Amino acid sequence: MGRFILRRVVQAVLVILAATLLIFLATFAIGDPFASSGEKAVPPDIAAANRAKFGLDKPLPLQYVIYLGNMVRGDFGIDFEQHRPVAQMLEAAIPNTVRLALVAIVIDILIGVVAGVIAAVKRYSFWDVLVTVIATLAIGIPVFVIGVVLVANVAGWGPFPSVPRSFTVQVPWYQEVLLPAFTLAIIDAAFIARLMRGSMLEVLRADYIRTARAKGLSERTVIGKHAMRNSLIPVVTYVGVSLGVLFGGAIITETIFQYNGVGYLLSTAIVKSNAPVIIAVVIFSVVAYVVLSTIVDILYAFLDPRIRLN
Q: Could you give the CA distance from residue 173 to residue 175 in angstroms, rounded to a whole number?
């Protein structure tokens, strides 16, 4: 297991280095990302500070080394709009995105796993058909449609805050996160329900399940203790990848609900051509995705020891 973990960690580091190199070439090798262009007027002092921070007066290979050093320290320069260190803006946005991602994933798992198990155990019943139909419909709905419908019909009602709302209105995080989390969870929960159903049906046909039943174990024990563990393996993979994507920022959902997370930060930065923020958010998204994917691989190997041998 230790060798497997080491191999996955080394692979993750190499992927991050390759991704950051591509980001560097796309932003620094083709020009000065901190220069004024078109309608974007960068204050001269901010532009000069960013150029000095990233060593744009030095040869390109040395620029990349400086860029990596800044990335490791979490120093991404100074924002064009608020004239603040970009790191401070990320520090404010990341906890909100993490909360949103975790709440959405919890909703995904609760709805998706339960629905998938019910559909598999009661195969071809009314409940199986109902889960299949609802999941198929939910997968086909674009996330922005769900968000717009919730904003138009649910936001401002009961515990759900209005969208948009005044900056002077303070809302507890657990109320602010509900609608965007539910928006993100609907489609993922449908995928998980489909995955769980298919995986569960395959496991229920396995020899060890028939053996467990032949021993006289109760159906609850067979399903809960023996069938669900192996059935969860593809679900764990999907949830981990989905969590990595959400940690990187759900840009559409956060923008629709004006939720102050990484995705909303990126969308406003793109509109304003705010290069330091765009670079920082893209790097954070890549690192978050790779790290979460690595953790999922390790958890996958824990659930199924056969994976370690590959």
A: 5
